[in-house]
C-alpha cells in the first residue's frame, strides 16, 4: 500500500489508482502477482469484484472466492467459450476412458483365468495325446499340421467380446 510506504497492490497498480489502507483488493492481489488481478479484471471487471468482496461475502469466505475467481478467469482466458467447464469436461472424458480401459483389462483377466482353468482341466484327457503328452506336456506344433486345432487354444480374444464382458462386469 502506498500510504504505508509499500508498493500498491496489483489491482490498484493495474487500475492506476492510489492504494489506501482500506483497499479491498490489497489482501487478495499482492503486488508481486499482477497477472492474477489482470485475468480477474478482464473477465469479471474490477467493479463487480469490488462489489462482491465488499457487500456480498463474509470476511472468512473472501479468500476462497478470490481463488475461485482467479481460477475461473484464467480458465476463461485460456478457453473463452468453455472456461473451466471445458477443463472439467475433458477430465471427465479421460476418467470415463480410463474406466473403460480398466473394465476391458479386468475382462481380459477373467477370460485368461477361464482359459487357464479350462486348459488345466483338459490336460491329459485328449485321445490324440500319447506318451509324454499325457503328463500335460504340449506336443510340438507344426504350422501346416491338421492336428493344430486339437492342441492349440486361442490365447487372444476379440475386442468386442472384451467390451461385452466389460459391460457385464460394470452392471
From TrEMBL:
* PROSITE patterns on file: LOB
Spans annotated as Disordered: 120-141
**What Pfam families would the database entry show?**
LOB
Q: What is this protein called?
A: LOB domain-containing protein
* Family, per entry: Belongs to the LOB domain-containing protein family.
Species of the source: Ceratodon purpureus (Fire moss)
What segments bear the compositional bias annotation Polar residues?
Answer: 120-137
- Domain (LOB): give its ranges: 7-109
